[in-house]
Amino acid sequence: MSLPILPFLIPLVGAALCLAAWRSPATQRIISLSAGTLALAVSIALLVRVRGQGIQTLQLGDWPAPFGITIAVDLLAGIMTVMTALMGFCVNVYSLEGLDRDREKAGFHPLYQMLLAGVSGAFLTGDLFSLYVMFEVMLISSFALIALGAGKRQIGGAIKYVAINLFSSILFLISVGLLYRVTGTLNMAQLAVTLGDAPASGAVTTLSLLFLVAFGIKAAVFPLFFWLPDSYPTPPVPVSAIFAGLLTKVGVYALIRMFTLIFVQDPGLTHSLLLVVAGLTMVTGVLGAAAHMEVRRILSFHIISQVGYMVMGLGLFTPLGLAGSVFYLFHHIIVKTNLFLVSGLIYRLGGSFALADLGGMLRRSPGAAVLFLIPALSLAGLPPLSGFMAKFLLVKAGLEAGRPLIVAVSLLVGLLTLFSMTKIWSEVFWKPAPDPVAGVALPAPLPASWRTFALWLPSCLLAGLTVAIGLGSEWAYGLARDTAHQLLDRQGYIEAVLGRD
Amino acid sequence: MNLLIALLAGTLFAVGIYSILRRSLVKVILGFALLSHAANILIFTSGGLIRDVPPLIPLGRDRPPEIFADPLPQALVLTAIVISFGITAFLVTLIFHANRKLGTDDAASFKEDGP
User: Fold this and answer.
1) For residue A285, which of A362, A205, A379, A164 has the smallest C-alpha distance?
2) Numbers of helices and strands, H then E, in chain B
3) ipTM tops 0.90
4) Is the Cβ pair B112, A234 closer than 8 Å?
5) Which residue of A has its CA nearest to B92?
């Protein structure tokens, strides 16, 4: 079977098998974990092949491009697929113990595998309409996951999430329809050929901005992000961890794909707008993080702020800027998922997500403190962790591109990110535990069993990866730089998909 | 004809967006249904409005006639209709569930911050 489609097929088949094993959550867990491991292995193999041999393509049903559906895997798609499989695996391990049994019986595993299938498919596809379909697969799975077992306090967040993401899908659909009218094709490579480098007509620029809004809602940029802090803190920890790690990044990936391959005709307008949006996103996100006092809400605002950094690299539109974006993408996926998993640990140890109710955790669990510190400091950009290199690349790219304002904004936002991370640290770990409310006992300390091991292992693995990327950032930068060059080489992508002619 | 369809799509968009912003969640569902109908009409129209010619190759020939209906937008619309059908079904269930939990379908009654 051809390698490029396997990272999509394996979770899909896993979901079907989990549905077949509906009555036995234990079997579902085994199927889910096996599918996750297999998908991880296959994605890494795919990335290695793309690194060695260039863009891999596959025409479904052997219909020639641009008439059939193309699977086109370049370095960016390969990296994102590996990240999906890795995060899918880690959160899956966490959910063995971190998810309550009722939700697991209500169909968590099939939905989870479908989510991973949709996300992988979105990265792998080379055709706009199958991107829409994959977005929908991912979206519907996420709707069901966020509403799974929702009680009175979670249903509001779920409905907001569903409504706004549904609206963004409809916007995407409209944009796709209008783009077809203007160009006559929906294959990404063919679109790149048809729209070309020529100066854009008003119609094409309008379409590019429509796509910007549609993907911007998914990616949570300013001023389209207000659904995120209201909905991400509400579902159970594994669900919010996988959402935080992957879903907004699919929107960022789509933005990068559209604005490096297809809509490059008017960078003075589109990419400058992206830069402005990036700056505003960074600032509003981090101000929101500084204002709130509940762990997951603070982390959700950080997602928004860090998405601003990724879009900044795209807006700069230079090889170094795009390399910074790509580096930031994979650094941030790891760090964000890890932080949400650690927030789950904090909840299990401390009984609450609110900063006012927590405290003294450094003494009770120094392991959790270390597991929090590593991704938190990486997010804030301290060397030698991965976040430092990511921010450094973007700052350098901004200075070289002659955009001092956005560089100043990004540095200031980095400082405020550090402030909000140390806020969480001092409130949760450093300050003495608050006097217990009468009659409410603290949760029992976690027993040392293999089940608790499932809670700690993913965080340790991801923290180790953060340190490894930070220390080995020369290698990681090499990968990011090659990805950026491949992204800017539109002709290479076109030739790989459509063949030379 | 194009003008008529454009006005139709525009009206559906307007009514749909107005309905989404209502307080009653049932109206929100109807709004989304109308919006997806409008988007589907838009995609269908993007293939050109051709009368009386199906998107098929006639019997015995190996290429379509000079003027023929573009099959790709029709396939896209079919896919989009199926997707929005699934989403509407889910949305109805979600609102029903919300109504049971909250006792009302008023969107102003959400309380968040739950783990």
Assistant:
1) A379
2) 3, 0
3) yes
4) yes
5) A159
The amino acid at A410: S
Which CB contacts under 8 angstroms, 24+ apart, belong to B5-10?
Answer: B5/B41, B5/B45, B5/B49, B6/B45, B8/B41, B9/B38, B9/B41, B9/B42, B9/B45, B10/B38
A with B: how many residue pairs have Cβ under 8 Å apart?
Answer: 113
d(CA A484, CA A313) in angstroms, rounded, equals 10
Residues of A in contact with B102 (CB under 8 A): 152, 155
Instruction: Indicate left, alpha or beta for A326 from its phi (over 0: left) and psi (-120 to 50: alpha).
Output: alpha
Q: In terms of Cα–Cα distance, which of B94, B32, B7, B51 is closest to A173?
A: B32
Interface contact flag, B114 A154, Cβ < 8 Å: yes
Which amino acid, A19?
Answer: L
pLDDT for A330-359, tens place per residue?
A: 999 999 999 999 999 988 888 888 888 888
Examine the pLDDT at B68 and tell me if it is beyond 90: no
Asked whether the beta carbons of A337 and A86 are under 8 A apart, the reply is: no
Q: Are A159 and B94 in contact (CB under 8 A)?
A: yes
Evaluate the omega torsion of the peptide bond into residue A236 and state whether it is cis, within 30 degrees of 0.
Answer: no
Taking the CA of residue B103 and the nearest CA in chain A, the distance in Å comes to 10
Supply the mean pLDDT for chain A. 90
Closest partner residue to B39 among A140, A163, A174, by Cβ?
A174
CB A221 within 8 A of CB A281: yes
Helix (H, G, I), strand (E, B) or coil at B20: helix
Torsion region of A154: left, alpha or beta (phi above 0 gives left; psi -120 to 50 gives alpha): alpha
Q: For A84-133, list the strands marked E by DSSP.
A: none
Residues B29 and A182: their CA atoms lie apart, in Å, by 31
- Chain B residues in contact with A176 (beta carbon < 8 A): 43, 76
The reply to whether residue B35 touches residue A234, judged by beta carbons under 8 angstroms, is no
Q: What is the pLDDT of residue A61?
A: 84
CB atoms within 10 A of CB A434: 12
pLDDT value for A417: 94
Q: CA torsion A9→A11→A16→A20, rounded to 10°?
A: 140
- Spatial distance between the Cα atoms of A8 and B79, rounded to a whole number of angstroms: 19
pLDDT digits (tens, 9 = 90+) for A136-151: 999 999 999 998 888 8
Q: Which two tokens stand for residue A142?
A: 């996420």
Which sign does the torsion angle of CA A209, A334, A120, B80 carry? negative
